[in-house]
């Protein structure tokens, strides 16, 4: 039988309150700490939420990681291209007769 985990929701890929920058968050379900002022009391009940296979969750995380790396690479490639274009324009302008 596959190992499972109880989640409160699907993976959240755009959290801005759970740390610096934009974060991806996995909300697990079930907590017995009952901390005063808990930010997520709806996650306390061990019977709520839904069960997910850990292998499926790992696949989702791997896919998100690949997408992130591709986006980061694309952003870097665009930045490098823009820098090269700007350098070329600046060099070309310097060579123009006045």
Give the helix/strand layout:
Blueprint: E1 4-7, E2 12-15, E3 23-25, E4 50-53, H1 54-95
Antiparallel strand pairs: 1-4, 2-3
Rounded average pLDDT: 86
Shape summary: elongated
Helix content: 40-55%
Q: What percent strand?
A: 15-25%
Strand order in the sheet with the most strands: 1-4
Q: What is the tally of helical segments?
A: 1
- Output the helix-strand order: EEEEH
Alpha carbon gap, first and last residue: 78 Å
Main sheet: strands, sense, barrel = 2 strands, antiparallel
The assigned structural class equals alpha+beta
The Rg value, from CA coordinates, equals 23 Å
Poorly predicted regions are none
The beta-strand count equals: 4
Structure characterization notes:
This protein has 98 residues and is of the alpha+beta class. 43% of the residues lie in helices and 15% in strands. The chain is built from 1 helix and 4 strands; from the N terminus they run E-E-E-E-H. It has one helix spanning 54-95, and strands at residues 4-7, 12-15, 23-25, 50-53. The chain has a two-stranded antiparallel ribbon. Strands 2-3 form a two-stranded antiparallel sheet. The model has no long low-confidence stretch (mean pLDDT 86).
